[in-house]
Protein: NDK5 kinase
Amino acid sequence: MSNPVLVCALRGIDAYEVLAGALKGLTQCRERLSTSGSLPQVVMALTPEVTFRQAILFFTEADFVTVTLQEHTYHSFQSLCFCFSVGESWRCRAESLYTYLHAGAQVLCTVLLIKPGVWSQNLARILRNLHLEKFTVVGMKHTNLEPAIALELLPSEVKQDPAALGAHCTYLTSGTALVLCLQRPNAVKKLMDLLGPEDPKLAQALDPCLWRAQYGTNTVHNGFYGSKSYQMAVRDTKLFFPEGLCCAKCQMLEEEEV
Structure:
């Protein structure tokens, strides 16, 4: 204990996983170089609970640096400042790190579109699985997608390939789709984790239980569209449910004026 130590409070998306990976790389680097004295010894908190206990030992709220965060990532950070968009301007609100750690994950909304030909045969099973994953359905409607809306749902790489673009648009507008607005903590990432990669073959290789592995056949007929980010979830919610949702207002809905 004769030498000083450096204590850092870090934040980021998937912070624990990312930091653990970085420290693993540091350890491997030390082992290759065989110079253990030249690189620092590092330990990290492994859970939010341990993070909280250690943070209050070393820091006061005045020690933390307040910076601006984009709204679509605020729920994934342990931070002092949240930033929300209002039109073209930004409104910032400071919030204690300790208060945020106590509050836990915020309830969010995301959108799941079940593509034509999939929902009519598998709806009961899909709804049951959503219930098991602790999603609440707060909006549901049938829709025949207009080409312009179908285009909005496609990733940028598809739009750059005319053949793929035509195939996707033709399929999405070929029949009735079912659109669900889903609510739960960390809803956007959880839904993406359930769906898996856009390519059902890749999804099958990763995990046969992924939804696109079960219901998809190729990159066009892959069963589902899901909002890939917080920002897209807000956009999709407003696009498909302008009349509102069947749920109590949560922080996301109030601040995004959904």
Observations:
- Strands lie at 81-86, 89-94, 107-114, 136-143, 177-185, 224-226.
